[in-house]
């Protein structure tokens, strides 16, 4: 009888804590997030006139010369299906060793692509974040130096002046948090949406 009572108390405690931590706590946190930070809580999706262009927290692959290029991305070998039944490609870290031949070959391939797209740069050093991927594999930012490296190409291909391109880059540059944490960084997706006239520069 005593053992049955112990099991009953344990089961009751388990159920109560499941409701508190798994239901009530989750609902309260979700509710507060939706009330106070709805944009961030829903993925920081950039939406203009009902069209969703992507999350400002997730990098996208741009390879044409009319747009700014971001970090090298490491797509997975598979896809998953979202709620709308669409196949979505996902990204992750490459896990390649910096000392490995595959890593070196990938970097050299990217260097060749950068040189081909920026012949005006000659032997000028390429910012490292343009030829390597981030730890996550889908970093949406590049350094101001990597953005500046592409200004002349973008001006030549978009019809905008270099000053206009730099104004867009400045608009999309995020400063270190609290002025001391991290480095200044440029959001590539925002830059490209401004280049396309989708997001306003002013």
UniProtKB/TrEMBL annotation:
Highest taxon above the source species: Bacteria
Keywords, in A-Z order: ATP-binding, Cell membrane, Hydrolase, Ion transport, Membrane, Nucleotide-binding, Potassium, Potassium transport, Transmembrane, Transmembrane helix, Transport
Gene Ontology CC entries for this record: plasma membrane
Principal subcellular localisation of the protein: membrane
InterPro entries assigned to the protein according to its UniProt record, in alphabetical order: KdpC
Membrane topology value: Single-pass membrane protein
MF GO annotations: ATP binding; hydrolase activity; P-type potassium transmembrane transporter activity
Annotated transmembrane regions: 12-37
Pfam families: KdpC
Subcellular location: Cell membrane
Subunit-structure text: The system is composed of three essential subunits: KdpA, KdpB and KdpC.
NCBIfam families, A to Z: kdpC, PRK00315.1
Record family assignment: Belongs to the KdpC family.
Function: Part of the high-affinity ATP-driven potassium transport (or Kdp) system, which catalyzes the hydrolysis of ATP coupled with the electrogenic transport of potassium into the cytoplasm. This subunit acts as a catalytic chaperone that increases the ATP-binding affinity of the ATP-hydrolyzing subunit KdpB by the formation of a transient KdpB/KdpC/ATP ternary complex.
Protein name: Potassium-transporting ATPase KdpC subunit
Name of the gene this protein is made from: kdpC
């Amino acid at each position: 009888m005593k053992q049955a009572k112990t099991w009953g108390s344990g089961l009751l405690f388990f159920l109560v804590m499941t409701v508190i931590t798994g239901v009530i706590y989750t609902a309260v946190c979700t509710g507060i997030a939706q009330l106070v930070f709805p944009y961030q809580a829903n993925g920081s999706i950039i939406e203009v006139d009902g069209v969703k262009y992507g999350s400002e927290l997730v990098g996208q692959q741009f390879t044409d010369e009319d747009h700014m290029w971001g970090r090298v991305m490491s797509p997975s070998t598979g896809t998953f299906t979202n709620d709308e039944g669409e196949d979505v490609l996902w990204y992750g870290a490459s896990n390649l060793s910096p000392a490995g031949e595959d890593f070196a070959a990938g970097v050299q391939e990217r260097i060749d692509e950068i040189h081909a797209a920026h012949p005006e740069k000659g032997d000028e050093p390429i910012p490292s974040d343009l030829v390597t991927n981030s730890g996550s594999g889908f970093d949406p930012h590049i350094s101001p130096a990597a953005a500046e490296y592409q200004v002349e190409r973008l001006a030549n291909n978009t019809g905008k002046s270099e000053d206009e391109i730099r104004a867009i880059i400045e608009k999309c540059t995020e400063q270190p948090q609290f002025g001391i944490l991290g480095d200044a960084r440029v959001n590539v997706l925002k830059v490209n949406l401004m280049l396309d006239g989708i997001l306003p520069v002013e």
